Amino acid sequence: MSAVERVREWELPWQLDVRGTVGHLRRGAGDPTFVYGNDGSIWRAVQTPDGPGTVTLRIDGSRVLGRAWGPGGDWLLEQLPDFLGASDEPEAMAVHDDVVAGLVRRSAGLRIGRTDRVWEALVPAILEQKVVGAEAFRAWRYLVRRFGEPAPGPVPGTMRVPPPRAAWADIPSWEWHRSGIEPVRMRTIRGATAMDVERHHDRLRLLRGVGRWTEAETRARAVGDTDAVSVGDYHIPTLVGLTLIGEPVDDAGMLELLEPYAGQRRRIIRMVELHGVRRERRGPRMTVRDYRSF
To answer: Molecular function (GO) terms listed (predicted)?
Structure first.
């Protein structure tokens, strides 16, 4: 694996909230594929079309300095502008009310970026189906550390590149069990390896076990779908309702509230996630299950 460093400098043509734009890609604080450096840098380990690669970026004023290593390094630097939202057009969203106007002001620099890596977004989304984040993040850490490979370059800590798509089908059932994943989600991921999801990201719901929520969570990250709505989410309808009208709503209510923003509904959701109203927690939280003891 090449250890040669590649470098790219890119002048930002607009204001950028870098953590708001890319932070939803990190799967928990211990994600071995995504690390915030102590110096303000952002590090990612990726399985690219050209093989494994690591990319790090830092923002200095309006200048982005990207560095990359590994066979996929050139691809990662070429893709860097789209990763930071160069293909996005936030100005295309018409604002219809004062609440959304306030969200837009507080979300200055937020863009809908894209990774152009569908599989790396699909697997964590399947792991997160109908469970608390801590449970899914634990499984992602285990599987990537166990079956991924060391990230190329002078990475912080012990970063790992996720396994390529075909390799997920060969993970033994007992390793899925050790990760804390039950057979249903294991079979969904194994079955998904049969589809070239990079080419057919618009057909994800043809896969058994992949529904509207999983499709939306995947497309929002991988292809920068500005209209992806995560119907069936445990938290998002409540956040949208509390922020836009001051009371929680269900999926149907959320869709009604977002209807004036068709084509830009993911942007509203992302702004709400970052700057919306949160209800005071009462009662017990959802239980973190552990299938390893079953």
So the answer is: catalytic activity
